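# nightly structure sweep
# worker-07 picked up a monomer target from the shared queue
# config: single-sequence mode, recycle default, output format = structure tokens
# input follows
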Amino acid sequence: MPAVASDVDPALEERPGRALPGALGVLAGAVGAAGGALTTWWAGVVPPAALEIAGLPAVAGGGAGLGPVQWAAYTGSAALGLFGFGGLARGNTGCAWVLGMYGRYRGTVRRTGLLWVNPLLLRRRVDVRLRHWRSEPLCATDPNGVALRVRTLVVWRVKDTARAVHAVADHEEYLRRCVEAALARVPVDPPMEPADESAGTDAEEPGLEEALTAQVAADARAVGLEVFAVRPIRVEYAPEVAAVMQRRRIAALDARQRAGVLSAVVDSVEDTVNRLTLRGLVELDDYERKVLVKDLTVAFCAGRGEPAP
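# output follows
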């Protein structure tokens, strides 16, 4: 069941995370690498051939050797280099970095370009662009309780990265559950007949779309998701009732067609009999009129491919 806003920690809200220009990280890493190289030269462990290629003079007295001071210098240089280069990150347009440490939220970085972020922080990339999700067939019912399958197109985006990451295990799966719950609460009109699509679909679909959008947006807002539209794009009967409903639709279409043909035949017979009598072409008593009406009805029905009544 979707959470409501009161179930989410009110203190969990997106805030800017700390990030420095990436040039500072590159500089720190370069200084660390240079410090390690200078320590190696100072200790006198660089081969003479390498010194000659690099154009560096040899250390007087053969160097200081690898003592505690040199190892401390190595450690400091390595830490500075790893800290500088390890914190480099690339910020892309439409993406954000959610920072955390020991399970606690430490802020969100939405800046773009080369950045330096504390490498001790756990970074998680989140897509904050406008997104479209086309669902698989989801269960629904019509106003009479008949089972349906509905495909929807959901337009959404991540608005609050802190809640989207920490308030729920998987915000995309949560959105899917919200759509399923909305379809369970809102009745969906059954598939329209081909003859009725132009008259009914345009008038009824916007109301269904608005109801679904309002339901899903209210449920998803609690976890930092902004839903713009939930559009039903395909409605069909569930497999277990599809055959029965198809036979019912065919029977209804056949009855409608027969009623239309019979109405047209009756109108044609009436018009023919009236014209014959008004023009004085024939004089008919009641019995003869009934016989003529019957013969004309049989002829018109046979001409239209319908069995005679």
